[in-house]
Amino acid sequence: MDRFTSMSVFVAVVEKGSFVAAAEAMKISPTMVGKHISALEHALKTKLLIRTTRRQGLTEAGQLYYQHSRRIVDDIAKVETLVHSLKTTPTGRLKITAPYAFGNHILIPLISQFLALYPEINIEIELADRKVNLIEEGFDFAFRIGEIIDERLVAKALPDYEMVLAATPEYLKKHGTPDTPEALRHHNCLGYNQHQSEKLWQSIGITPNEGESLPSRLVINSGEGARQAALMNFTIVLQSKVILEQDLLNGRLVRVLPELSLPSYPMHMVYLPQKEMPLKTEAFISFMMEKLWQRLMTLSHL
């Protein structure tokens, strides 16, 4: 006989006080109750119950077995409830990765809203400017800037990651406001790193003459560092709207050459395909495709 079923029957016999009452609770016959108790006693090689015509009681072994059986039956019931809840209520853990700037400025505030809506979901976020391996590193979602080349992933398109040219009013007052891309040659134009910087500036129409380099006296490998340099009235910065949004809104920075078409990069939320998608995953996709789209579209008006 199934050991767990026999254990459940034994617990019912102890708590209901008789085979008949236990049979009714377990929806089996009193004879079958007796078989389950006999099977347990045979397997344990000891008596669990003392029964007379007037009462029943527990042996010392029976008392010990009951205490532990009660705990096991409760634990199994809790586990079954938790598993059932996975199919009825979004619950569980999600592991997410995103680039630093996007994560800090855009994603984390939205994650906080999501968690408030779904109190049974927990989230772990790793911010990193690298492409993680979702399978090997156990991530549920990744937010990526750039083309998606891994065909194994489901990729949900988001608004493009847009760039903007900006400087402080004080910088422009001192050095003048450029009215063409070529005029930027005469300004401090902040670089990210020498190779990427030149490619980026060339993409907006500044092509160095042979043997020349662009006027980047300062090269920084951090978007936030580039922002700080611009705020110190040192440079014209070409940086993402995500990073410069608040500075543009409050006037600490102003756009330079706003009519110029600047590079932008495709952005996606990616995850692995699943035959049966958990509710927590469905909830996250639905929330982000609505709220994240709305949030990113506000940047397009800067």
From TrEMBL:
InterPro entries: LysR-type_TF_proteobact-type, LysR_HTH_N, LysR_subst-bd, WH-like_DNA-bd_sf, WH_DNA-bd_sf
One Gene Ontology biological process: DNA-templated transcription
GO molecular function, one term: DNA-binding transcription factor activity
Highest taxon of the lineage: Bacteria
HTH lysR-type domain span: 1-59
The keyword DNA-binding appears for this protein: yes
Alphabetically ordered keywords of this record: DNA-binding, Transcription, Transcription regulation
Pfam family of the protein (one): HTH_1
PROSITE patterns tied to this protein: HTH_LYSR
Entry annotated with the keyword Transmembrane helix: no
Family in the record: Belongs to the LysR transcriptional regulatory family.
Protein name in UniProt: LysR family transcriptional regulator
Native organism: Limnobaculum zhutongyuii
Lineage, uppermost ranks: Bacteria, Pseudomonadati, Pseudomonadota, Gammaproteobacteria, Enterobacterales
